[in-house]
Fold:
Amino acid sequence: MRMQRSAGENSGRGKRTAGSGGKLRADSKGGKYIFNPMIHRQRLSRFLSSILNRQVRVRQILPNEGGRIVAGSPFVIMDIVVELEDRSQMRSVYTIVIMEESVEEFHRHPEAYIHRGRQQFDTGLKMPLLQEYVFIPLDVYRKKLHNKAIETELEAWLGFLAFDDLERIWEISRYDPVFGEMYHELSEFRRKPKEVLGMFSGSSLKVGDRH
Structure:
């Protein structure tokens, strides 16, 4: 599975960036910490489960790019191996793209903020390929959820990524305590990044590797 996050300019083109809610999208280091699979593997598993609409558990982060921020760009890419609830490995290979600013084509479908698809051949050939795609335009999500209460876990996760106003932060925090914890951790990280990262160095990271 490959998960990546991008943010275009207002036109939907241009630079890419990475981050998450509460203005986390403009704070790539904070985003890397909040979803660090070595520290918060269970959290990342819940997030992916809500997107894939099935229970999965993060099993391994592949060393290719492994969640690091690519040099010269705040674009985040993670290659992740996950297993299903019965501990079998998921066969499909998913590419999940989360966009801050999406191109016009996504806005032609204002009722849909998550698009799932597979590859197909123009000849009609039926070949069971494993590659699947998920595209999530957060700008479309924000418009669709305007003046609408958050009702599902997927909406809460995407709200954490998309919204930064206090009313929404309070609503998302009340939906599930885990989001309140993440907002608190993000606040602490921004105030004392070195101290927070130091708390999870050494033995803490080894514990994260075993889960």
